[in-house]
Design a protein that fits this description.
By secondary structure, this protein is of the alpha/beta class. The protein has helices at about 30-40, 55-65, 80-90, 110-120, 135-140, 165-175, 195, 270-285, 285-305, 335-340, 360-375; strands at about 15, 75, 100, 125, 145-150, 175-180, 200-205, 215-220, 310, 320-325, 345, 345-350, 350-355. The protein has two domains: about 5-20 and about 285-375, Aspartate Aminotransferase, domain 1 (Alpha-Beta Complex); about 35-285, Aspartate Aminotransferase, domain 2 (3-Layer(aba) Sandwich). Helix 3 (about 80-90) runs parallel beside helix 4 and helix 9 runs parallel beside helix 11. The chain is globular and about 70 Å long. It binds pyridoxal-5'-phosphate (PLP).
Amino acid sequence: MLTNERHLFDVPSDIAYFNTAYFGPRLHSVNDAAISAVGLTARPWDVESDLFFDPVDRLREGVATALGGDADGVAMIPGVSYGASTAARNLIVGEGRTVVILAEQFPSNVYPWRRKVDAEGGEIVTVPRSLDGWTPGVLDAIDSRTAVVSVPHCHWTDGSVVDLVAVGAKARSVGAALCVDASQSFGALPLDVTEVQPDFLYTVGYKWQLGFYGLGYLWVAEEHRVGIPLEESWAGRKDASDFARLVDYSDSYEGGSRRFDVAERSNFIGVAIGNAAMAQINAWGVGEIAETLRMRTEAIAQGVAAHGWVAAPDNQRSPHLIGIRQPNGLPASVRESFADARVSVSVRGDSIRVSLHLHTSDEDIERLLAVLAVV
Ligand SMILES: Cc1ncc(COP(=O)(O)O)c(C=O)c1O
C-alpha cells in the first residue's frame, strides 16, 4: 500500500480531482523535467546528437518495465489511432472474416478497423454490454471467422474490465490477432504482455501514464517487428545516429519496433515528460498503484450506494476507474452541482465516471460523496 503521495502531485487542495481518465494529474517531477527540456531546446547548441536517441531508448525501457515486456518492442506514437492504424496495416482481415470490438468502444480503436474491413470485405462484430460483464460476450464472439480481436483492458466509460488473458488465449486458439487499447489502464491496472500475448498494444501517454499529450506508446510482438510502418522516418533507419552519413540511404531499419516510431519521435519535451512519469510509475509499481487505488475506489463505491447510486459489480470493476449510475438516469443538475463544488468528474453517457489517483485524499472523497448525496 502506498500512502501520502499527494506531495508529489501539483494538485491544489481547492479542487477535488477525480478525472485521471480524462487527463492525468501533473507530478512535480514532470513539471521539473518539462521546464528543463524547454530550456534545453532554447539552447540548440547544447542539443548533442545522442539526445535524439538515448532519452527515447530510456523511455522505451520505462514503458517496457511497466508492461513486463522488452524495450525493443516499444515504439513512440502520437496517439491511439496511430497505434491501431499501424496494427491494421500489418494484419490481414480478408473477405468474410471479422474484427471483434466492444459496444461503445473509444473511436480511435474503431475507425481504423472500420476502414480495414471496408477495404478487405470483412465485418465488424460488436459485443454488447451484458450484466455478466464483457468477457463472456467477447469469448462467444470469437470463432473461426475472427481475424482480429481489438479491445481495451477496461471500458473507457465505466472501467468494466475485460479478461485479456482469457481473450488472448481464445484468439490464439482460432488464429486471430489480439490488439489492445490500454489507454485507460496502462499505469494503473497491471498487465503483463508475456501473459496476455497481444500482437499490438497501444496507449496514450497522458492519462494513467501521467505523461505528455501527443506522445503515446505502442508495443509490438516480436513476429510483427518486420512489419511496414505508417511512415518512413529517417530516425528509424539503420545507423541514423551518424548524422554526417544520413544521405547514405539505408534499406534496413533500426532493430525492434523502432521502425514504427512516429516522425520526430525524439520530441525532447514529450520524451523528458514521459521519462519522469514512467520513472515515478515504476518506482511505485503498477501493482502497488492498483492496490492502493482499489481501497479508495471501494470506499467510494460503498459510499455512493448509500445515496442510491449503482456501480458495476465487484468482479467487473477496475481498481482505478468506476462509472456510477442512478437507476432512473442522471439528474439534470449533475454537471452544475459538481462544478459549483469544485469536484472534477466526467459524465459519459448515463454514468458519472470517477477516476482517482494517488493524490486523492479522504477529504476529496468526502467532497465527492457530499455532491452525490444532494443531486
Ligand atoms: C480508451 C481511449 N483510447 C484512446 C483515447 C485517445 O485516443 P487518441 O490518442 O487517438 O486521441 C482515449 C481518450 O479519452 C480513450 O479513452
